[in-house]
């Protein structure tokens, strides 16, 4: 019987979309009808749908993209209901579907998450009176335990089943817990369920004194399995038990030992009889053949008959066939032993199996099966086994790299899971294997595997490692990702992660870092990809890169108008994966390594060719000096940046290393098959960065190298003390002579953007000093043009400081805001434009969000218009003038800026927070008072009630500002005056 609407072709031939349609059709069939009073035709259709779903499970659809989402949408609820179905046939087949998924799903992380859905239903099924249903439920639970399908949530549900009301449920749950404990046995003090030892002990304490005899027996068996894995916890539990329970446990132990002895004796006798029966005829035949040969040698001169020669030839062929058969039998037996070892519950057996696999892989005939058995062992609970699996995978990669092409998603996901573990040795080995995968495999295959892992992974920490690995892939293959197709695929996949995760989270920050790397790798291609995105997707990318690439909005606007883009500094990109990999390489052998490896690690090195510096280099690692001591010293010049080509040349100071802030083309190839790549801007170096003192001599104050040098040290400062020392020194340098900071102001501002929002130390001095530097820079006439270009970013940092919990930081932020608006160094038009753009950033996000910093920025608009009043003049096309002109009047506002500002204020009037609405109304009143009816056309979007509210506050403030007048000023109505001017009426009330 076939299901109507269900395709008959295999899921292997289906695309992801076709599979989703197929699953939805099966879900509709399973969810149709009343499950209690259904007709025979209806439940037969559902039975066929369950069989079809079981077939899909056996074909391993867990490899498909979005498997977890598809299962939660289409399978979760229907399969739960059919497990609890009254009809036995439907219930048993539903259990078979769960078994099929458990045995054939290669995406174990997703399946362990799904197991939590079905364990409660399976436990409920054990309460049935029909033994067929009970047996199906218990068998399914045992299969889940043996296939390591229990995750954290599923195990919690199973523990609850140990204390259920029904005795059969309790007994079955204890048997499953026993299997789980046996599956996770190891002797390395790494019990995978170590977080649940107290829970298991408490549950066993209740089970050992249960009222049901079968439950007590299951609990005793579970106790001895627990004793094998965790003897200390089991002994602690044993001491707290009553004497009758202890005697029952000892009696159970002696019975089980007697059974084991009987089983071992019977197995040894059967094996010895079978081996003698099989080996003895072979020995006899070989002996007969040898005797025949000897007889022929002795009787050769007497009789050389053809019959004797034929007999000897037959004997020789018999021996060859027997030896060949024996070798085939030995190969099959060794393969069976290897499979059993890799699937064993004992960690020592698995370790021996992996070592045997590494030694004999080149001679094995079942290489594909070996790889499939090897993948689950990469995440083995025992870190020794997992490390041996990584070594075996390196052997597979060297001998047969083509076997890993189809298994790359599972391989990369397993290694990324190891990176998030707490074993440093295992993390380092996994990271090195991931780096070697990039060298051995195709870039497109690795990229597709990473993107699929990002869709399947649920844990945020593993997602962060996947994004860092993708970022490392981009930096190692810059020419490839500078092309339009790989760039578009990368941006699209990272955009999905951005849209699905919360802002300011670790995953969101890693996604922003990956997008920044793509921007650095291929700037032109990145802009072409942005044009192909939708408006919403483009806004999401631009908003995410607002801090890392602040000029991206300007570049997009200029490119859309066909204008030539301006020159901006290349953003600074960190690669945590490369940093960790470099620390591992330099930490393992600081003095060893080939010339190419050292040249890759060091981009800009200045060393003297003498041997004395080479001898002193290792001693330099032992000397540690704080940054405050370095800055207090005098003397020494700050050398300029060197290129890679000057690294071998002579020059002053020994062992001075400098980073370059841009991506430089690589001069070294790792192999002839690799495409040229670019060095990562923060790639690790072989030698420590020297702490050179800053020259306080006035003769060198104009040297730009001083500013660059101090920024280098600020970037690598460790701890709040060093950071505060450098920030204080920078503040003094800018106050004394700001000229050297003209060319490096952009880099300084990027450092402040990292320090001010992210500094969370208790002494809050880093944030305060960063804002003090901004105050000094804003008040400097030399740096006025540099600050004017970044005025919006300065206001955003000011808002962050106003929202700080420490009053000192808030005071400095408010002082900085007042300095910008009241100093007169910056034109009113430019200040209001920066305020409008900053407030647009606020309203672009969550509509319900409000803070004191944003309110103060909105209030500052009201203060500006109230302070200047009628002296403000609105002009057309003010944007054509230079933003910093000496002859600019302080009260001139351009029409484009005023239009943007009024649009933001109108949006604030419609905000969901009452305090924001009231502040926006007062801003509208101040604008109306300053510009009179000239401002009314810009308030057309206000509703009738909003216009009425603004009119009420206008009349009230007008009366308060003129207390000496005897007569009351005339009452004004915004709606009436707009009607007189011919402006459109309000659309809604």
Tags for this model:
989 residues, mainly alpha, 44 helices, CLASP_N_dom, ARM-like, microtubule binding
Helices and strands in order:
Elements: H1 16-31, H2 40-58, H3 67-74, H4 76-83, H5 88-104, H6 108-125, H7 131-146, H8 152-161, H9 167-183, H10 197-208, H11 213-229, H12 231-239, H13 243-298, H14 306-342, H15 347-360, H16 367-377, H17 383-399, H18 408-419, H19 424-440, H20 443-456, H21 460-476, H22 478-481, H23 484-500, H24 506-521, H25 523-532, H26 535-544, H27 552-560, H28 576-588, H29 595-601, E1 605-606, H30 611-620, H31 627-632, E2 656-657, H32 704-715, H33 719-736, H34 745-758, H35 765-778, H36 784-789, H37 791-802, H38 807-822, H39 828-844, H40 852-868, E3 873-875, E4 892-894, H41 895-909, H42 914-931, H43 944-961, H44 974-980
Parallel strand pairs: 3-4
Antiparallel strand pairs: 1-2
Helix pairs in contact: 1-2, 1-3, 2-5, 3-6, 4-5, 4-6, 5-7, 6-7, 6-8, 7-9, 8-9, 9-11, 11-12, 11-13, 13-14, 14-15, 15-17, 16-17, 17-19, 18-19, 18-20, 18-21, 19-28, 20-21, 20-23, 21-24, 23-24, 23-25, 24-25, 32-33, 33-35, 34-35, 35-37, 35-38, 37-38, 37-39, 37-40, 39-40, 39-41, 40-42, ...
Describe the structure.
The chain has 989 residues and is mainly alpha-helical. Among the domains are: 266-297 and 311-332, no CATH class; 442-582; 598-693, no CATH class; 716-823; 827-989, no CATH class. The strands form 2 sheets. The protein has a two-stranded antiparallel sheet. A two-stranded parallel sheet has the order 3-4. Helix 19 (424-440) crosses helix 28 and helix 40 runs parallel beside helix 42. The radius of gyration is 38 Å and the shape is elongated. Residues 1-7, 186-191, 263-315, 588-705 and 878-888 have low confidence and may be disordered.
């Amino acid at each position: 019987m076939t299901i109507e609407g269900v395709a008959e072709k295999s899921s292997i031939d289906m695309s992801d979309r076709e599979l989703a349609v197929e699953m939805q059709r099966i879900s509709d069939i399973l969810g149709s009808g009343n499950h209690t009073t259904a007709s025979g035709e209806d439940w037969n259709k559902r039975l066929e749908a369950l069989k079809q779903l079981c077939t899909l499970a056996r074909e391993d659809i867990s490899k498909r993209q979005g498997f977890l989402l598809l299962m939660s949408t289409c399978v979760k609820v229907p399969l739960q209901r059919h497990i609890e179905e009254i009809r036995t046939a439907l219930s048993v087949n539903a259990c078979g579907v769960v078994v099929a998924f458990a045995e054939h799903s290669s995406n174990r992380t997703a399946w362990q998450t799904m197991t939590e859905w079905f364990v409660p239903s399976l436990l409920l099924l054990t309460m049935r009176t029909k033994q067929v249903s009970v047996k199906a439920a218990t068998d399914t639970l045992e299969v889940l335990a043996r296939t390591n399908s229990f995750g954290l949530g599923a195990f919690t549900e199973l523990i609850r089943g140990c204390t259920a009301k029904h005795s059969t449920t309790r007994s079955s749950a204890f048997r499953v817990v026993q299997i789980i404990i046996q599956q996770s046995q190891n002797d390395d003090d790494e019990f995978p369920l170590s977080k649940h030892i107290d829970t298991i002990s408490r549950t066993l304490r209740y089970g050992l004194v249960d009222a049901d005899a079968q439950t007590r027996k299951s609990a005793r068996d579970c106790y001895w399995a627990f004793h094998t894995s965790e003897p200390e916890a089991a002994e602690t539990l044993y001491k707290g038990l009553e004497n009758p329970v202890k005697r029952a446990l000892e009696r159970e132990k002696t019975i089980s030992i007697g059974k084991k002895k009987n089983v071992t004796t019977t197995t040894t006798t059967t094996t010895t009889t079978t081996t003698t029966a099989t080996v003895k005829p072979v020995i006899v035949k070989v002996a007969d053949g040898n005797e025949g040969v000897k007889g022929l040698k002795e009787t050769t001169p007497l009789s050389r008959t053809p019959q004797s020669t034929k007999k000897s030839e037959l004997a020789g062929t018999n021996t060859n066939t027997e030896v060949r058969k024996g070798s085939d039998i030995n190969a099959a037996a060794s393969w069976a032993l290897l499979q059993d070892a890799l699937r064993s519950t004992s960690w020592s057996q698995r370790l021996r199996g992996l070592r045997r696999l590494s030694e004999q892989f080149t001679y094995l005939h079942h290489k594909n099966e070996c790889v499939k058995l090897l993948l689950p062992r990469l995440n083995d609970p025992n870190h020794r086994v997992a490390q041996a699996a990584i070594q075996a995978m390196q052997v597979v990669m060297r001998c047969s790299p083509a076997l890993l092409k189809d298994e790359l998603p599972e391989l990369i996901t397993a290694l990324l899971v190891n990176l998030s573990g707490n074993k440093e040795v295992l993390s380092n080995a996994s990271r090195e294997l991931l780096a070697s995968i990039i060298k051995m495999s195709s870039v497109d295959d690795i990229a597709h595997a990473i993107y699929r892992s990002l869709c399947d992974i649920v844990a945020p920490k593993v997602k962060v490692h996947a994004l860092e690995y993708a970022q490392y892939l981009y930096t190692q293959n810059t020419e490839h990702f500078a092309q339009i197709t790989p760039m578009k695929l990368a941006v699209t996949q990272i955009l999905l992660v951005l849209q699905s995760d919360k802002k300011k989270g670790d995953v969101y920050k890693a996604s922003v870092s990956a997008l920044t790397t793509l921007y650095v790798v291929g700037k032109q291609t990145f802009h072409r990809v942005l044009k192909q995105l939708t408006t919403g997707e483009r806004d999401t990318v631009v908003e995410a890169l607002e801090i890392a690439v602040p000029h991206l909005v300007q570049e997009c606007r200029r490119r859309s108008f066909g204008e030539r883009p301006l020159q901006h500094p290349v953003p600074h990109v960190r690669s945590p994966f490369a940093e960790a990999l470099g620390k591992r390489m330099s930490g393992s052998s600081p003095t060893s390594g080939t010339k190419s490896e050292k040249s890759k690690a060091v981009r800009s090195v200045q060393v003297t060719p003498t041997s004395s510096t080479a001898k002193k280099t290792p001693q330099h690692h032992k000397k540690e000096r704080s940054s405050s001591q370095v800055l207090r010293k005098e003397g020494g010049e700050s050398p300029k940046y060197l290129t890679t080509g000057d690294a071998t040349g002579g020059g002053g100071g020994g062992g001075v290393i400098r980073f370059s802030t841009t991506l430089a083309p690589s001069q070294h190839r790792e192999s002839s098959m690799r495409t040229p790549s670019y060095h990562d801007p923060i790639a690790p170096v072989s030698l420590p960065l020297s702490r050179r003192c800053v020259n306080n001599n006035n003769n060198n104050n104009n040297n730009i190298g001083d500013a660059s040098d101090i920024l280098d040290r600020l970037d690598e400062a460790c701890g709040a003390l060093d950071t505060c020392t450098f920030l204080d020194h920078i503040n003094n340098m800018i106050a004394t002579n700001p000229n050297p900071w003209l060319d490096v102001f952009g880099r300084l501002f990027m450092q402040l953007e990292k320090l001010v929002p992210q500094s969370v130390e208790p002494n809050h001095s880093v944030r305060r000093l960063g804002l003090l530097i901004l105050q000094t820079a804003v008040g400097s006439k030399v740096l006025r043009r540099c600050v004017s270009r970044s005025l919006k970013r300065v206001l955003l940092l000011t808002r962050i400081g106003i929202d700080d919990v420490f009053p000192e930081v808030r005071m400095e932020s408010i002082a900085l805001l007042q300095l910008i608006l009241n100093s007169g160094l910056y034109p009113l038009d430019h200040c209001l434009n920066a305020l409008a753009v900053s407030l647009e950033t606020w309203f672009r996000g969550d509509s319900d969000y409000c803070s004191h910093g944003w309110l103060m920025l909105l209030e500052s608009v009201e203060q500006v218009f109230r302070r200047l009043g009628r002296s403000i003049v609105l002009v057309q096309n003010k944007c054509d003038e230079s933003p910093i002109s000496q002859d600019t009047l302080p009260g001139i506002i351009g029409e484009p800026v005023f239009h943007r500002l009024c649009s933001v204020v109108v949006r604030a009037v419609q905000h969901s927070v009452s305090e924001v609405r009231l502040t926006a109304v007062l801003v509208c009143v101040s604008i109306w008072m300053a510009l009179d009816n000239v401002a009314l056309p810009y308030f057309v979007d206000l509703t009738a009630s909003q216009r009425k509210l603004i009119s009420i506050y206008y009349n009230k403030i007008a009366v308060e500002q003129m207390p000496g007048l005897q007569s009351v000023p005339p009452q004004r109505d915004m709606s009436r005056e707009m009607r007189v001017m011919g402006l459109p009426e309000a659309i809604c009330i």
